[in-house]
From TrEMBL:
Residues 51-192 form the Phosphatidylinositol-specific phospholipase C X domain. It comes from Ficus carica (Common fig). Coiled coil: none annotated. This is Phosphatidylinositol-specific phospholipase C X domain-containing protein. It comes from the Eukaryota. One of its GO terms (molecular function) is phosphoric diester hydrolase activity. GO terms for biological process: lipid metabolic process. Pfam families: PI-PLC-X (PF00388). InterPro entries: PI-PLC_domain, PLC-like_Pdiesterase_TIM-brl, PLipase_C_PInositol-sp_X_dom. CDD domains: PI-PLCXDc_plant.
Length: 318
């Protein structure tokens, strides 16, 4: 019992120290960077407002959501706080400016997060198609993966193609150098990551796991995650020379050995430091490597931070 209490005290001290480290960094460093003052006039159509004929796919800093379809997961006030990473529906996330969705599925095509399941992936597809119908020039990266510990849903590629086929941008590495207008009317880059089924191949309507990479660090320590994100990003090729998307996630996650297990208070330890991260990328000379930037509980300022840097790239200022 005594050792357990001692360990918990050490964990709380580490968290407090790391929160202070980020706070001090924020206080001592500028959060300005090229495009930091830009605010999109219409977040629902922010790609259209940046001129699809000028906006290249490899210039975009894509605002993404982590565990995107968890707004209704579990039971309210009981299990939901332990698994919910977004409070908005998929449609409302897209309207707010999200352009990368992280969807995890289980055998019966229901969305899940670990052992908890929520609505069918049908609801995700419906929201995506509703958004596409209401816009003309917005490109979405839809990542769908089979959750750890589950088998792939049967005939899932067939299901996706039947429902999204007219919008799918086929797997082709030339896409990275194209403008948004060159891809239209196709609108969705669908990255399908099965656990046991064969990976999609070149020319397929779907992109494979090699085209969307990250270096996930499972920690609830905010400074540790911030520094790890910076380290791994700095090791990547610049966006204009690589043929895959690379994601940085501005999140920390609850740990079983810590008494705070609800997602929101834990992820709030790093949530407000997205602009600081971008500014530090500039200071450390790796802002040309930043591409997908994801978060829990996405908000307007996070979207604006990403769109602002994208705007600066289009204008040749970053």
């Amino acid at each position: 019992m005594g050792s357990h209490v001692s360990k918990q005290m050490e964990r709380r001290k580490a968290i407090s120290t790391e929160k202070k480290t980020l706070c001090n960094l924020q206080g001592s460093c500028s959060e300005t960077y090229p495009g930091a003052d830009y605010r999109p006039p219409d977040r629902k159509n922010w790609m259209a407002n940046l001129n699809p004929e000028k906006l290249h796919i490899n210039q975009i800093v894509w605002p993404g959501t982590h565990d995107s379809a968890t707004n209704k997961i579990g039971f309210p006030f009981i299990t939901r706080p332990f698994a919910q990473c977004q409070s908005l529906s998929i449609y409302n996330q897209l309207v707010r400016g999200t352009r990368v969705l992280d969807i995890r599925v289980q055998e019966d095509r229901r969305v899940c997060h670990g052992i908890l399941a929520t609505y069918s992936v049908d609801a995700v597809i419906k929201d995506v198609k509703k958004f596409l119908a209401e816009t003309q020039s917005e490109i979405i990266i839809l990542e769908i993966r089979t959750e750890f510990g589950h088998d792939d849903p049967p005939e899932f590629e067939k299901y996706l193609e039947e429902n999204l086929g007219e919008f799918l941008i086929h797997q082709d590495e030339h896409v990275f150098n194209k403008t948004v207008s060159e891809l239209l009317p196709k609108r969705v880059i669908c990255v399908w990551k099965p656990r046991k089924s064969p990976q999609p191949k070149a020319g397929s309507p779907f992109w494979n796991s090699g085209h969307l990479k990250d270096n996930w660090i499972d920690t609830d320590l905010p400074s540790t995650k911030f520094e790890s994100n910076m380290k791994h990003l700095s090791e990547q090729p610049p966006v204009n020379s690589r043929k895959f998307f690379y994601r940085v996630e501005n999140t920390v996650t609850p740990q079983a050995d810590n008494p705070v297990l609800c997602v929101k208070p834990v992820t709030n330890r790093i949530h407000g430091y997205a602009r600081l991260f971008i500014a530090q990328c500039v200071a450390k000379g790796c802002v040309d490597k930043l591409q997908i930037f994801s978060t829990d509980f996405i908000d307007e300022d996070f979207v604006d931070a990403c769109v602002g840097l994208t705007h600066a790239r289009v204008e040749g200022k970053a």
